[in-house]
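re: ur question from the group chat, yeah i did fold both. here u go
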Amino acid sequence: MASNNSKMLKPTKIDVVILCGGEGRRLRSVINDRPKPMAPVRGGPFLKLLISYLAKFGFRRFILCTGYKGHLIKRYNFKADRLEIIFSQENSPLGTAGALKNAESLIKSQDFILLNGDSFLKVNLKSMLDSYSYKRPDILIVVKESKRNADCGMVKLNQSGRIIAFEEKKKARRKCYISAGFYIFSRKMLSLIPKKRKFSLETEFFPYLVKKNKVYGYPTRAAFIDIGTPERYKLTDSFLKKHLP
């Protein structure tokens, strides 16, 4: 049992990488003077809420991958007591995987968490880290069950929870799994991302990886919100009152 405990990941030893570089075009009718992660909620930016939530679990080192109007993120005072916040700025749009590759030299931990800066997932982080520690996949992807008959990029799992395919967005006839945009990576996976070019995690990197690498899903029913559209952004206050009172 002691040997298992020695292999468990500790939040204080894991870097957190947050993707903050998107242009947020769909939200500009509501917010056009700042990047999406800086959208105001509860008197401060959405990004601050994300960092504060993760810090409660013991995470201490955050790498913010900035792009569009990144200077507004960099100059904001997050009041990060005992936290280390580092910035990785992209000079031209690199996509989600390209932005991650751009931050490679700043990532110190052998395993790290990656998430989107415009969505919040109230996932059980301890359980998620334990699952990764035991399975030791190359990447663990949080997946949510979707019961809506709507367009979604579906994730196919086998009986052991390994991801065997990613399917392009199409009409789901019944419940399916979709990526929640929250991941744990083994750092060695960064070597597979091309340098200095636009590259997508969702449509280019992950579909390629599942054919040769151990990519597992972590199913959750945790509360989730994405602020990427005016309609969803308007729901943020009521969501937070219910799930982060």
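okk and heres the other one u asked abt
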Amino acid sequence: MATTAPLTFSSLSPRVVGRAAAVVTVLVWTSFILIARASSDPARGGSLTPFDIAFCRMVGAGLFLLPWGAWLVRRDRALGLGHASLFGLSPLPLRVTVSAGLFGGLLYALIAYSGFVFAPAAHASVLMPGSLPLWTTLLALFLLGERITPARALGLALIVAGDLVVGGASLLRAFDGGSVWKGDLLFMMAAMCWSMYSVLARRYALDAVRATIAVTAFACFSFVPLYAVLLLTHVAPGHVFTAPLPEVAFQTLYQGFGSVVVSGISFTRMIEYFGPVRSTMITALVPGLSALGAVLLLGEPLYWNLAAGLALVTLGILFGVRAVVRR
């Protein structure tokens, strides 16, 4: 009787792995926007500050990834391979670890969570995943030498128009004392940080697992000890050590394992297969799904400018994907 070999991850084709990574990334990014808004918005009763949530994210990811990184480093050294850093916890050289960790770990988390304090999830759904193709294309142009075709330029123009429709309206209301524009600006900055990380991952040809471990190791060494000291000395106004344990445990598990371990590996794997520009354009589903979730689950209103901006951004991303596929 013929036997069938068991299906393993390594036996899957690059196409299957790439598409599966894209699906996982879209789902995690959508839930990240909704959960981050529900957790960071002071009006919803959460006791953790944005920096508290970032702290939970880094600690949770470190619990999973730092032992993994130490094992990889020991194995590489036994084989005479690899360039480790950060006391043998990062399997990448120090320069790559710092550059990838700064943009893909530390700055992205601190800026993104802070944005949810001021702006609703519907704004984040448009401005964060929506502006990724814009920033990634511009950074890839300067750092990787990629060419911007006329079709891709048209898609980027639609994305810029959508961002202006959303962010411009909140900026005009700033003269009336509104603060939503602060969140919009932070969302755009967070998207730029993540785009920088995606381009660096492509430039250095980073392995998905090793890149995510290195990003986490840098965050744990640079932010976690410093923030813990600031909390214990009552310099920082955080509550991570006094908040209810179930809330801290949930944020540590979801933000650390889900948003960093699962999403980080799947996003980098997607970059390996699709490339940085097309990978960020594949996130066309995220703005629509997260905006719809914000309306249905968080009770946020969907104003005309948000709907128009969402339509323009989604159309721009889809147009860009179509242009890249034709190339």
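fwiw on the second one: Residues 143 and 259 are 27 Å apart (CA to CA). Residues 15-36+46-326 form one domain. idk if thats what u expected
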